[in-house]
Every structure is written in C-alpha cells, then in structure tokens.
Design goal:
This protein is of the alpha/beta class. About 20% of the residues have low confidence. It has one domain: Homocysteine-binding-like domain (TIM Barrel, Alpha-Beta Barrel). It contains eleven helices and ten strands.
C-alpha cells in the first residue's frame, strides 16, 4: 500500500503502509508560542486555535507524513483534576479538526491520547472510567476527521488495555498503543515494570493496529527497543505455552502468552502466575491490587485470529534534557542524530519514525530526508 493520505485507513490496511515519517514534539513547540511549563495547552484548541494550527502545519511542511493532535491531556479524568471534565469532547474534536486542516491531504492525522493522570493499576482510577474516557475521545476524534488514534506514553498495562478497549468499541478508526520505557538497566521497562513482550502481547491480543514506544530516552536508544518489539512478532498470544515451553515456568515470561479472546490474567509482571501465585516475583508490578490487573473480555480478535506482525511505532526524545544557568531546559541531540538513526531503525522493523520531547520541525525534516533517500 503506497502512501496516500486521501485514502481511508482501516484497522486492516494500516498494517500495509510503508515506513512513514511522523511529527515531533508538541509541548516544547507550544512553549515557544507562549505556553507556560505545566500549562494545560490542550485548551488552546478552543482558545488559541491559530497557534495550534501553526504547530501542526510546521510539521507537515517539514515532511511529516503522520501528524498527531494537541489532545494528549484532553481526557475527562485528567481534565477533571483541573475542573474541566466537561470540555473533553469539545477539546478532542477541535484538536482533530485543527490537525486535519493542517494536513491538507498531505499527511495522516493520528489523534493523541495520553495517560489519564492517575495510577490505574494502584486503584486511583477505575479501568471502566478509563475505558469510558477513551471512548469519549475516540468518538470526538472520529467526528473531527482523524485517520487513526495513538494511545501514547503508557506505563500501566491496566490503563493501556482499558483505553484500547474503549477506543475500539467507540469508533471504527485504527488504534495503536505506545509505551514509555524509561526504567531498568537497559531502558527495557516502563516505570510500572512493563516489559516489551508484555506491551506487544497486550496490543496484539487487544486488537491494536500498531504498537511501539515514545519518550523516556534519546532517539538513539530506540533501535534496541524496536529490535525487542520485532522479536515479539510471531509469538502468538494464544493463551498457551510460548516457544514450546510453559508460559511462566520458574516465574519467567516465556515471551508472553496473553490469551486471545479471553482473560489476560497469568502474565503480569515477569509473567509469573497471577491466580494462586505471586503476581510479580522477581520484579514487575509488585503490590498491584488483584482487581486492578488487566481487565477481561476485550475485543481481542476478529473471528478468533489476528495478524501478529504489528507495525512498530517509534518516537524518541532529542537526547537527554539539560538545564542551563537560567533554568531553561535544552535538548542536546540535533537533527543529524535523528537522520543517522533512521537506517538502523528501519532495519529493526520500525514503520513509523518521529520525535518526542525536544524534537522540532528540523528534526522531522532530517527524518523525512533520510527516509526518502533510503
């Protein structure tokens, strides 16, 4: 399938897309336009739409073939913390409409859903609440003209699964999940202990159209992450043993073993037993309450089966942030770093390549040129 943003994406044909250049950071670009650190800039979708539109256009003009939306914090749970829960639908729809206007038929629009702002696995929010909030955003995105949805910067399997289910049930758009791996000796776990095989299996069993990683580290570290995701392909989340052995012998993960179409208990943390055994022996989720494990009954597959080779989504930071003497945060990796990492990312199976914190239209332009010259 060739790149044609005027062609409707589906949950099936998205997997046939060629490698594409996505966009870069939104938060740091919004700060350049006057947003204060920590400000909920999503409200600009309604209050200062021209500034939001300018960021989106800058990425399209730089060569982005996929742009996101200024809706990372537009779920009603997070907005509720700021007393704005009733604005979730309007902000989400407006964000999709603005990015669609900026795309002008030159790029796909993947609407962004970020974390809900509460620790779902630890009981601060109910999975059904997350599911409903994601469903509300998904309906708004579809009305606003988005082509797909990316649930990004995830660290908690319970939250990610609930959000994925909510989106898939509420709209017909393709939906992907992107995790942030910023813990462990090799940045191979999320802050909640989720490993890459667990993230991949959740996405594959849950009906996602793509899976990957964003934020947490510089773009150069994402080659290893992409390779780890690529290694998960073909490990069927069938509910039975993986790679010919017990799914959790000795407390190990055995590569996953998430059941398709049924409960997903039995693979938390390091993959050890959940029912009747330690939930995270040797690491993982520790003391997560039993009723905050991934929920059952998700839309795992169509007719009981699903392609396993999910496209891999990669958006890394522009290096590690540094704070200068004036208190300004600066990112150290220039566009040339992003350009240099494109070939190894492609070799590792990445299908979508872009930037996260600190990346700019200049970084995106470098990615686009590297992709065009491959």
């Amino acid at each position: 399938m060739r790149f044609d943003p005027t062609r409707k994406l589906t949950r099936e044909n998205l997997r046939d897309l060629p490698p594409l250049c996505t966009d870069g950071a939104w938060g740091t670009e919004m700060q350049k336009l006057g947003a204060r650190p920590g400000e909920l800039a999503d409200v600009w979708n309604l209050e200062q739409p021209d500034k939001v539109l300018s960021v989106a256009k800058s990425y399209v003009d730089a060569g982005s073939q996929v742009i996101l939306t200024n809706t990372f914090s537009s779920n009603r749970i997070l907005l509720g913390i700021h007393g704005m829960a009733d604005r979730a639908f309007a902000l989400s729809k407006a964000g999709a409409e603005l990015s669609k206007r900026a795309a002008r038929g030159r790029a796909y629009v993947f609407a962004s859903i970020g974390p809900c702002g509460k620790m779902v696995m630890m009981g601060e929010a109910d999975p059904d609440e997350v599911r409903a909030a994601a469903a509300e955003q998904a309906r708004a995105f579809e009305e606003g003209g988005a082509d797909a949805i990316v649930i990004e910067t995830q660290s908690d399997l319970v939250e990610a699964q609930a959000a994925l289910q909510g989106c898939l049930e509420a709209c017909a758009l393709p939906v992907g999940v992107s995790f942030t791996f910023d813990a462990g000796a090799n940045n191979d776990r999320t802050m909640m202990g989720v490993r890459i095989p667990e993230a991949y299996n959740l996405a594959a069993a849950g009906g996602a159209s793509f899976v990957g990683a964003n934020c947490g580290a510089g773009i150069e570290t994402f080659v290893g992450i992409a390779k780890a995701f690529q290694a998960c392909e073909g490990r069927a989340p069938s509910g039975g043993p993986v790679d010919g052995g017990p799914a959790s012998a000795g407390g190990g993960s055995g590569g996953g073993g998430v059941p398709v179409g049924g409960p997903v208990e039995g693979w938390l943390g390091d993959g050890g037993p959940v029912d009747g055994g330690p939930a995270s022996k040797g690491g993982g989720f520790g003391g997560a309450p039993a009723d905050r494990r991934p929920v059952d009954g998700g839309p795992a597959s169509v007719n009981g089966s699903q392609s396993l080779a999910l496209p891999i989504w990669i958006k890394g930071n522009a290096g590690r942030p540094q704070v200068d003497s004036a208190g300004n945060v600066r990112y150290t990796a220039g566009p040339e770093v992003f350009a240099a990492v494109v070939p190894p990312l492609l070799a590792a199976g990445a299908r979508f390549i872009g930037g996260c914190c600190g990346s700019t239209p200049g970084h995106v332009h470098a990615i686009a040129k590297a992709l065009a010259g491959r």
